[in-house]
Amino acid sequence: MLLSIVIPCFNMEHYLPECLDSLLHQNLEFSEYEIIVVNDESKDATLEIAKGYAEKYPNISVIDKKNAGVGAARNSGFDAARGKYIYFLDPDDYIAENSLALLLNLMEGNNLDILTFNSRSVVTKRYPKSANIEDGAGELKIRDGISYIANKKHHNEIWWFIINREFMIATGIRFIEGRWMEDAILTSELFCVAERMAHVDLDIHRYRILPTSAMRNKSPEHYNKVIYDNANAAHVYDGLIKSIPKDHEDAAACIKRLKTRQQSFVFFLMVRLMKSDISIKKIPEMLKGFEKIDAYPLKKFLGEDYHGMAYSFLVFIFNRKPLINPFIRIFRTFYTFVK
User: Fold this and answer.
1) Burial of 172 (0-12, 13-18, 19+ CB in 10 A)
2) For the chain (length 339 residues), average pLDDT per consecutive 10?
3) How far apart are CA 35 and CA 1, in angstroms?
4) Model pTM?
5) Contact predicate 198/140, CB 8 Å
6) Of 13, 38, 110, 310, which one has the greatest count of Cβ atoms within 10 A?
7) How far is C-alpha 277 from the chain's CA centre?
């Protein structure tokens, strides 16, 4: 079997059918790939929908498990996978029709550990076909993961690349369970140890913008957890950055980009703090921890990946400790009034 596609699901009854349909409209035989739906104790009809597809299509299977979060669900799917390659897709997204065979041919023909591709954001209008897949892949630039990070901006998410499953097994890298930002951590961890990576300039993935997505959840409990999980990600990145071989020709550029990513966790943590109910008194201790790992002050955040007046203004405030507390107090007062 060539490919395993893992889809973690929690309350996705409205979107799962379109996701699965996109995976079934591929130029592959069912024997060549499997779709593993991992139901994370959904409260709606997600499980029934998944089982209905599994009864109809021989390459679809369902894992029904106790709720433990998306990281645990992805790990369960990974453990059950049988394909030479593995792809993690979110159930509210979908992929372009007849695109998988080309990706697999590129993985096979170039002996790649990881192949990345483009994503297109969508709201309501459907984009079932890739705009440029008929043009083919063109010539791939193959490099190791450190050089890839150094030379190309990359996403945090897991859904814009296919992985050689044996490569991932050999690394021992898995999704952190019980925390958000688990895909951002795993993505960079995998990239840093990949020996053969490439990017194909084709719009394969469709990212559906939803007001109800997990990262847009505004409940205080969830909102605060994301803040603390951003802090955890910043600390995990410290070890990752220190693991980069200093004698690699692209080490400096790779570390620079990883430092930007690390400080982005701190920046967006601070932005979320502005709207949270976490006591302002906790901020100095948090910043002290970030200072120890050179994730604060935010001296390496602004640049190619993050730029503009809003970013610059907030970094100016966040980098000046005496301004942080009064700024957040004023913002919270205003935010409470207009909310």
Assistant:
1) exposed
2) 98 97 97 99 98 99 97 98 99 96 97 97 82 75 98 94 99 96 97 98 93 61 93 98 98 98 98 94 96 98 94 98 96 78
3) 12
4) 0.94
5) yes
6) 38
7) 26
